[in-house]
Each structure stands twice: as C-alpha cells, then as structure tokens.
Amino acid sequence: MTEAASGPAARTARAVRSARAVRALPAVTAARRRARRLPPLVAESVLPVLLLLDVVAAYPPHELPAPLALTAALALPLLWRRRAPLAVFGAVAAAALVQWLAGIQLPADAALLVALHTVAAHSSRRVTLAAGAVVEAGVLLACLRWATDGAFLTPFVAVTATVVAAAVLGVNVRTTRAYLAAEQERARRLELEQEHLARLAVAEERTRITREMHDIVTHNLSVMVALTDAALATQHRAPDRTTAAMVQVAETGRQALTDMRRTLGVLRADEPDAERHPLPGIAQLGTLAEQMGAAGLPTSLDVHGDHTHLPATAQLTVYRLVQEALTNALKHTPAGTRATVLIRCTAGTVTVDVTDTGPRPPRTTTAGTATATAGTGNPAGHGITGMRERATAYGGTLQAGPLPGGGWGVRTRLLLGSGGATAA
C-alpha cells in the first residue's frame, strides 16, 4: 500500500464515495423493484456488477487488486441472497470485517445493507435484530477508525439511520408479503365459498323448478285424464257434457302450458310469460275448486281472514299445497268423494286444511302387505316431499293422515315471519 493511497486525501475521497453509495441506496432499492420484471439472475446481478465497475473506475491499476478482491467478496454473494439470505449475510459480514482489518474503504459496503435488508425481508424479527446488531457493530468500528477528528457522532448517526432504514424496509417487505399471502388465501377461501354457495343456489333452484313442474304436470294431467274419462263416458248419452268436458280439457292444457312457461321463465331473460301471467295465489283457489269439481271432485272453499297482505310467495305456497292435496284426492279416491278446503289467515300465520270424504285403496308393498296410500300421494314419490319442503320453507309442518270419521286430511300451518324466500 503506497503512502498516497493511504494519505488523508485518499481517505477523504474514498469516504465521499462511500457516503455517495450509502445515499444512493434508496435509488438502488427502487432500481431493484423495477428490475423484478427481469429474470431473477439478471436482476440480482445488477448491483454486484455496478459495484465492481465502480471500484474498477475508481482505483488505478496498481492499486486495484486488493479493492477489487474485497469488492467481489462483498458484492458477489448478493447473487444468492434470496436463496440463502442468512448465509449470504454471514459471507458479506465476514468480507466487511476483512475490509476493516485491511483498512480499505469501499463503496461496496452498501452490500452489507442490502444483505441486512434481505435478511429482514425473509427472516424473523429476532434474526433481523441480531443481523442489525452485527451491522451496527461494524458501523461503530468503521466510524471509530475512519471518522475524522471531532466528527464521529455525525457519520455514526447518519449510517445508523441508514442501517435502521434498511432493516425497517426489509421488515415492511416481509409484512407486506405476509399480508398479501393472507389476502390471497382469504380470496381463495371466499372464491371457494362463493362456488359452494353458487352450487347450493343451483341445487335449490333445481329443486324448486322440479317441485313446481311436478305440481303443475301432476295436477293438470290428472284433471285432464279425469275430464277425458268423463267425456268418453258421456259421449253418447250427453254430447253437451262431453263438449263441455273437452273444452275444460283444452283450457286445462293451456293453463298447464302457461304455468310451465312461467316456471321456466326464470331461466330465460326474454321469456314474457312470467310477467304477463301473475303467480297463482289464494284468490285463484276458487277457480281451482271449480276445476276440480268439473273433473269429478266436488270441492268447497272457505277462506277466513284477509289474505291480501300475504306475500306472493306465501300465497303461491298455499295454492300449491291445496292443489297437490286435491290432485291426490282426485287420483286416489272413488267417485262420489267430496273435498273441503279451509284457509285461515292471520297477521303472522296461514293455516291450510284440506279434507276429503273418500277412503284410500290399499297399496301392496313388495313384501305383499297392504298399507294405506296417503292423500298427499305415494310417500315414495315427489308429492309428499314437495309439500313438506314448501311447508318447511315457512317454518311449518305437514300433517297428513286418515280422519277419525273417515276420509283423509292434510293440515299445514305456515309462519309468515320465517322468510320463505325459496318457498316458491
């Protein structure tokens, strides 16, 4: 080492270069952020290459070997800083200690701050504090050795602030990364939950449409079959009754088509029938009773209380319950059976009672035993299930069974405060 290289002027020039390198750290950090768009190896090579070029340009050829070797020892480990941050920090700290022992000031000291930043970004706070203490010890030793007389405190505070900034920025990177990972996990869970809710909604809508289609098809086909049988029986004896029955068959078929279009209209945005034809409700039960009477099941209807305040979905539920009960009475009772429908409406409840006077024929099971066929349809079919689903949607229960004096009864009590958004 020559006298010129170790003189006060040379030390001052190198201290200025080191100070410039420290002040350039934020710009280097910003460049690193922009460099993330590059391949990892290229991005991580930028700082070591710049430090090596800087030392090559700053020293004359005869003084270059020692600074260049120390700069390489400080800068080149940074190429692996993301894969092994603690090992790289140890290597850079060791190189900085050798540099201090050699008494050579280098701009590559910024590599120690970069290594500290990487440790703080990838390690725990305890490890970060330990690494920061190592760097701070190096700062103290450097200032004790290279600070000019009477100017120890100012460079020590300035460099210490830089060390703290590097550690805080690294901790902020780690915190941000953890926050983003938590947000991504939360978004993934929300996406899975939304997919699950969407599948549930699709299943509920499929169940609703199936229930509606069952009620519409079963009721209208039962009525049409009964009317057709009546028309065939009277075609020679009473042609006028036959004509009236066939007219009723055609009207029932048209009503069935309307109901089907309205039910399936939710699947098409351009389906006009859902808006043109309102949902059936309690007001349409009179027409339903007349239709059942024309099909061979004389039906009386009695409605107590004001039903105009009931929501449309609740009225549709009442209508479908009565429709299904009467349809099953028509299907499973002999000629001459009469049915009675009693509706009681209050502010918070609706009670539906459907009774008939006809006995049910026995149903033979696979074991050969005879059991009664329920008035709400075959228990193994969709009728009883659909009625119970409709009642459950409004917090109600369904009771169906033989009456003490003969006949069959279906009783349902709906709680209007229970929602029933899916009851339709």
Structural account:
With 424 residues, the protein is an alpha+beta fold. Among the domains are: 3-146, no CATH class; 280-363 and 370-424, 2-Layer Sandwich (Heat Shock Protein 90). The protein is 63% helix and 9% strand. The chain has 14 helices and 7 strands. The strands form 2 sheets. Strands 1-2-3-7-6 form a 5-stranded mixed beta sheet. A hairpin with a 3-residue loop joins strand 2 and strand 3 (349-356). It is rod-shaped and about 130 Å long. Residues 1-25 and 363-381 have low confidence and may be disordered. It comes from Kitasatospora terrestris. Keywords: ATP-binding, Kinase, Membrane, Nucleotide-binding, Phosphoprotein, Transferase, Transmembrane, Transmembrane helix, Two-component regulatory system. Residues 353-383 are annotated as: Disordered.
